[in-house]
Amino acid sequence: MKTCKRCGKAENEALLFQVIDRNGLAVLCEDCAKNEGSPVIKRPSEENAIKFALAQKAKKSVSSDLIDNFHWQVMMSRRRTRLSQKQLAQELGVSEQDIAKVESGKQAENPEVIRKIENFFRINLHKDKNLLGDEIEPA
C-alpha cells in the first residue's frame, strides 16, 4: 500500500499524488504537496494509464527475458571490435544514447535495439533462445 513520504498517510486515508520534490519523484498526500509547494504531476488520462500499464508489463517481460549482466556482454563485444559507442550506434542506425543506455543496463525495454545488437555481434542476450535464435520449449 502506498503512503505519503512525509506524513505517512495511507492511500485509503488521503489522495496521494506523484510530485517532484528536491530528491526527484515522490508520493505525497495532497496536504503535504500543498504545504511544500511541490509541483504535482497530473494524473494520466484513462487511455494514458492503460498505455503506461501495458508498457510497464512489456518492459518487465523483456527485461526478465534477458541474461543477467546483458549490458556487460554488449560492452565487451563492442570493445573487442574496437568500436566506440558512437561508431556502433552509426553501424546499427540508432542513437549513441541508446547504446549508452544499453551498456548501463537501462535500455532493456527497447527490444529493437537489443535485437540489432544481437545480430551485429552474433551474440545471444536472451535466456530463452538457443544459438540459432529459436525459442526453447519448456521441459
Describe this structure in words.
- This protein is mostly helical.
- It has a domain at 64-121: 434 Repressor (Amino-terminal Domain) (Orthogonal Bundle), CATH 1.10.260.
- 47% of the residues lie in helices and 9% in strands.
- It has helices spanning 30-36, 46-65, 70-80, 85-92, 96-103, 111-121; strands spanning 16-21, 24-29.
- The chain has a two-stranded antiparallel sheet.
- The relative contact order is 0.10.
- Residues 131-139 have low confidence and may be disordered.
CATH architecture heading of the domain at 64-121: Orthogonal Bundle
Report the sheet-strand fraction.
5-15%
CATH fold title of the domain at 64-121: 434 Repressor (Amino-terminal Domain)
User: How many helices?
Assistant: 6
Alpha carbon gyration radius: 20 Å
Oligomer class: single chain
Strand order across the largest sheet: 1-2
Structural key phrases:
disordered C terminus; 6 helices; 434 Repressor (Amino-terminal Domain); two-stranded antiparallel sheet; 139 residues; 9% strand; mainly alpha; elongated
Chain-wise SSE layout:
Layout: E1 16-21, E2 24-29, H1 30-36, H2 46-65, H3 70-80, H4 85-92, H5 96-103, H6 111-121
Antiparallel strand pairs: 1-2
Helix pairs in contact: 4-5
